[in-house]
């Protein structure tokens, strides 16, 4: 482990994919460690203290979902999940596992690196803009959002959101009453200028609804999403 290097743990049981991802990330200047099964992944996450985990879903030992749960229960760390198919992504997002982004196989290394950098930017971004405007907790019905502490309570009970889910909620909250298109949400929350990944918005809305109730975020058909201030 060296000083300022950004460390990434790759969890993938297919050696060719693991090696290709590792080689590319090293070439991009990241520090890299690799695990090929669930238990080793949890152990390496503890010892290597990665800044981000690239996590395959289907793994020997126990699967990526269980790895995500175990790792997150010890220390919050951004997770980019590798899924086999789009419907598997929907399924996993529906479970609210706590990944920050999803990349469906097969993916290009260029796309993977871009998504990794986007997640890292988001997580490392100092609370600056948010902290300035967020005087204290904002309450909408039973929902309480503390933007400074990045904590959310529902009916007084703390709800764990991933950094991305929190950013999405905060963005909807800042613009409450307005309808935000998927492209605008992608740009503001994910820092993506192109709208090619609008499904990722839908997936995270689904996760937020699952955790915070179905009534909070309104779908404006054909347009986008809006925070329902009446709820
Ligand atoms: Ca696998």
Plain-language structure description:
It is a single chain. With 231 residues, the protein is an alpha/beta fold. The protein has 2 domains: 3-124, Response regulator (Rossmann fold), CATH 3.40.50.2300; 128-227, Arc Repressor Mutant, subunit A. Helices cover 44% and strands 21% of the residues. It has 9 helices and 12 strands. It has helices at residues 15-27, 38-48, 64-74, 86-94, 109-124, 128-133, 163-174, 182-190, 198-212, and strands at residues 7-11, 31-35, 52-56, 79-83, 101-104, 137-140, 143-146, 151-154, 157-159, 180-181, 217-220, 224-227. Strands 2-1-3-4-5 form a 5-stranded parallel sheet, sandwiched between helices. A 4-stranded antiparallel sheet has the order 6-7-8-9, with no helix packed on it. The longest helix has 16 residues, at 109-124. The chain is globular. The structure holds calcium ion. Residues 13-14, 56, 58-59 line the site of calcium ion.
List the topology elements:
Blueprint: E1 7-11, H1 15-27, E2 31-35, H2 38-48, E3 52-56, H3 64-74, E4 79-83, H4 86-94, E5 101-104, H5 109-124, H6 128-133, E6 137-140, E7 143-146, E8 151-154, E9 157-159, H7 163-174, E10 180-181, H8 182-190, H9 198-212, E11 217-220, E12 224-227
Helix pairs in contact: 2-3, 4-9, 7-8, 7-9, 8-9
Bound molecules: calcium ion.
Highlighted features:
binds calcium ion; 231 residues; globular; Rossmann fold; 2 domains; Arc Repressor Mutant, subunit A; alpha/beta
């Amino acid at each position: 482990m060296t000083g300022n290097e950004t460390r990434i743990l790759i969890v993938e049981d297919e050696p060719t994919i693991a090696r290709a991802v590792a080689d590319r990330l090293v070439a991009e200047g990241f520090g890299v460690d690799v695990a090929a099964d669930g238990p080793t992944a949890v152990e390496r996450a503890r010892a290597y203290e990665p800044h981000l985990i690239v996590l395959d879903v289907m793994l020997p030992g126990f699967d990526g979902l269980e790895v995500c749960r175990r790792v997150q229960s010890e220390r919050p760390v951004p997770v980019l999940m590798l899924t086999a198919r789009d419907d598997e992504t929907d399924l996993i997002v529906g479970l609210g596992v706590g990944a920050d982004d999803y990349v469906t196989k097969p993916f290009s290394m260029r796309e993977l690196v871009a998504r990794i950098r986007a997640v890292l930017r988001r997580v490392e971004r100092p609370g600056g803009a948010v902290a300035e405007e967020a005087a204290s907790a904002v309450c909408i019905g039973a929902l309480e959002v503390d933007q400074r502490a990045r904590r959310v309570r529902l009916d007084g009970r703390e709800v764990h959101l991933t950094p991305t889910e929190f950013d999405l909620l905060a963005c909807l909250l800042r613009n409450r009453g307005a309808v935000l298109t998927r492209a605008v949400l992608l740009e503001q929350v994910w820092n993506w200028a192109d709208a090619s990944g609008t499904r990722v918005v839908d997936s995270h809305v689904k996760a937020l609804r699952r955790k915070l109730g179905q009534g909070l975020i309104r779908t404006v058909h054909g347009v986008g999403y809006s925070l329902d201030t009446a709820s």
